[in-house]
Write a structure and sequence with these properties.
The chain is mainly beta. Helices cover about 10% and strands about 55% of the residues.
């Protein structure tokens, strides 16, 4: 015999699933991509900093067509890379280009002088004037180190 508490739990879960399945749906698109951050060295205040292998730059974008409802980019590090000093004098920019690959908008991030192992930035919701691509770029000490892009199509 089935325990009545288990039976009620299963019935409640089934009802909740039915509501989720039959509820109104909204056309949404999500794109998530990661690019490895290659090992590099840079100088800060006379000290040489080294970013080892083991970090990825991830760019997430949500929306529908040219309407972007959420955008985020940041670095995740694992293994030995997570123990390092991180990224100093970093910023994350978002750029938007048309289908001819001509950049028409840049949202330049603030340069952060501190060193951080997991730099991250959100960008505000917006509606793009054209289809093309949206990219996120990580700069460290003024040099672009990694980019990750998503195509924005109909």
């Amino acid at each position: 015999m089935v325990n009545p508490y288990v039976f009620r739990l299963l019935a409640a879960l089934s009802a909740a699933a039915a509501v989720v399945v039959t509820g109104p749906s909204q056309a949404q698109a999500t794109a998530i991509g990661s690019t490895p951050v290659h090992t590099f060295e840079y100088s800060v205040g006379g000290a040489t900093m080294k970013v080892p292998t083991g970090c990825t730059f991830t760019h997430i974008i949500r929306g529908d067509g040219k309407k972007i409802t959420y955008q985020n980019a940041g670095v995740d590090c694992g293994f030995v890379a997570a123990l390092g000093s991180g990224f100093c004098n970093w910023r994350i920019d978002f750029t938007y280009a048309d289908t001819s690959n001509k950049t028409y908008r840049t949202s330049r991030g603030k340069t952060h002088p501190e060193c951080k192992i997991d730099p991250m930035r959100n960008n505000s919701p917006q509606t793009l004037p054209r289809y093309g691509k949206a990219c996120a770029h990580l700069y460290v000490n003024g040099v672009r180190r990694v980019s990750q892009c998503h195509h924005i199509t109909k």
